[in-house]
Amino acid sequence: MDALVVADYDRFGGVAKASNNLVACLSSSGLEVHKYAIHSDPVFCEPKLLNYLRSVRRTWEFRESFQIFMHFEAILIGLILGFITCSFKQKVFVIHTDIYGYYAKSSLLKRFVLAAMMRLLRKRRVVFVSKEAELRAKDFFGLRYTSSIYNVLTESAEGHVFRERGGTTVIGSIARLHKSKNIDLLIRTFDSVCGGLPNYSLKIYGDGPERERLEDYAAQFSSFDRISFMGEESEPRKMFGSIDALVGFSSIEGFALVILEALSKGLPVLHSDCCCGPREIMDPFAEPSEKTSNWIVVSGGILVAPPEESGLYLSSLADNEGVYHQALNCFLSKLESFSHKGLPGAERFYCTHIAQQWRELLATR
Question: Does residue 344 sit within a domain?
Answer without folding.
Answer: no
